[in-house]
Amino acid sequence: xxxxxxxxxxxxxxxxxxxxxxxxxxxxxxxxxxxxxxxxxxxxxxxxxxxxxxxxxxxxxxxxxxxxxxxxxxxxxxxxxxxxxxxxxxxxxxxxxxxxxxxxxxxxxxxxxxxxxxxxxxxxxxxxxxxxxxxxxxxxxxxxxxxxxxxxxxxxxxxxxxxxxxxxxxxxxxxxxxxxxxxxxxxxxxxxxxxxxxxxxxxxxxxxxxxxxxxxxxxxxxxxxxxxxxxxxxxxxxxxxxxxxxxxxxxxxxxxxxxxxxxxxxxxxxxxxxxxxxxxxxxxxxxxxxxxxxxxxxxxxxxxxxxxxxxxxxxxxxxxxxxxxxxxxxxxxxxxxxxxxxxxxxxxxxxxxxxxxxxxxxxxxxxxxxxxxxxxxxxxxxxxxxxxxxxxxxxxxxxxxxxxxxxxxxxxxxxxxxxxxxxxxxxxxxxxxxxxxxxxxxxxxxxxxxxxxxxxxxxxxxxxxxxxxxxxxxxxxxxxxxxxxxxxxxxxxxxxxxxxxxxxxxxxxxxxxxxxx
Length: 517
Known about the structure:
Blueprint: H1 3-13, E1 18-22, H2 28-35, E2 41-44, H3 48-62, E3 67-71, H4 72-88, E4 93-99, H5 115-119, E5 125-128, H6 135-147, E6 152-158, H7 159-163, H8 184-196, E7 201-205, H9 212-225, E8 227-231, E9 238-240, E10 248-249, H10 254-261, E11 266-270, E12 294-299, H11 305-315, H12 342-352, E13 357-362, H13 368-374, E14 380-384, H14 393-403, E15 409-414, H15 415-418, H16 424-431, E16 435-441, H17 446-454, H18 462-468, H19 477-483, E17 487-491, H20 494-505, E18 511-516
Parallel strand pairs: 1-2, 1-3, 3-4, 4-6, 5-6, 7-8, 7-11, 8-10, 11-12, 13-14, 13-15, 15-16, 16-18, 17-18
Antiparallel strand pairs: 9-14
């Protein structure tokens, strides 16, 4: 049995059953091994950013890793941006990066590079396989590292380790250690701080604390103790919709964020970190809370967040029967008509969202209203790119659709961001994935126009405009999608958009709507 076969067997023994891939020559023995393993689903991405972004979306929806297969250092480098997003989302992921045979490295062939150096900033764990005999222990270590706590791991597979005789192997399922016990000192300190500042406490939930069952507990605490429940600026995954507790997302614009948090005296973190400004701006703070705000960590990533919230509820004397504030009916707002707008799209999607669907939001500025409206929509999962690296939306939706083939996936996509990984549409077509992509076609990097104002530039000239706008020539998303094998149509009125959305939601398979705004 060669090393590549052993690697596959270890992955399959530990429920890693999907490999998103863009292989090259160094990985051919691993590709051949995958061909002998019918239990592994292999999904081709035409660009490595699609591969790593799809693995991120898959992991967020399954809570377990997929494998990626990348070709040497340059292939890994092409996938780093969405590895960055996955790392910020705490997504489990196992990247397998092929490399030259160990004895070929000293020759400095054209594709030779420092793979470990490239991988380290975007990985929580990196290891090079020493030889065929090291494949099983190294792969088992990678699986363990991807899950304790969940994060991005990178395993470098030299070609001679893949093709070499690994000897007999007996891979089994790795037994993971349970999460640490709830820190009762942190629970008591948090409860005391909440009692001391009624109405001036905020609680940020993320990770497992943003799932419906944990949100219910957080909502009970919020209602009983006058605690404001918050979500991070960029949300890895949150279960939303009517009948569920709906945290308020901290806004991206720094002035709005500091205004929201300005009167908070105590900020409680459940699974996340203290929120900070995305960038430094002249004359504006980096921290979003006041400097005298007390920041407490109830539980961190890797802890049992559900149990920590239960312990806090008990410490505060809140009964499990306590009612929480749930989102109910939509605001009384007439359906818009005429020319299509960002808000009209957000309202239409929220009202028509299928039950148990998945929303992948990379519309950046254009869909900001959707999150608030989603509290009243049908129950669903909501995800965003978490690291600020654009180009995650189409791949994330692709991975989510593979993870949950029985659920409709809606991708809210900005036109500029979508062009980074437009190749993901081809994978959606090839795999016949049930994804509706809605492209907010404003033909500009709208967020950068806002950032120019944030740094004090209120009027721009031709050179700046040419770097921020996408209108000469205008992108034709209908043609781009059809060229990738995805059916598509364009809407520039509310009525046309509603009709296209109804059609796309009524059938299975990939469909793209270019929403011209």
